[in-house]
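Input.
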Amino acid sequence: MKTKMEFPNINERRPEGKKEDGSSYRVLVIDDSMFVTKQITQILTSEGFDIAGTANDGAAGLEKYKELYPNVDLVTMDITMPNLDGVAALEKIIEFDKEAKVIMISALGKQDLVKKALLLGAKNYIVKPLDRNKVLERVVLTLRKQ
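Output.
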């Protein structure tokens, strides 16, 4: 009887969260909602991403980014948070690292803040409620853009 090794699976694909070399993309999740943080974490880890860290407001997120730098490939950040909102935190992260890849997460009706964030250097945005396919599509698109 032939073993599985002798029949390569033509449908096997590399998980979206894995780089060419097999290592995982590292993501920092900054959101004041424990529910949203958990949701993003579950979506991303199910595709092989590594959650490098989490923070529950912009100020803590900025500090976490500096602590993890340069070992973070992507940041997902809520726009509306206490202490330091997402737009202000984005500005400070871009000031610190102009190559940072940040995806803003926004509730419906916050288009003006999303536009401002994109002009300041955010690479993409996701609108709540979170949809697994949209999250993965935007994250992968942002990571592949040079």
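The two ends are 47 Å apart (CA to CA).
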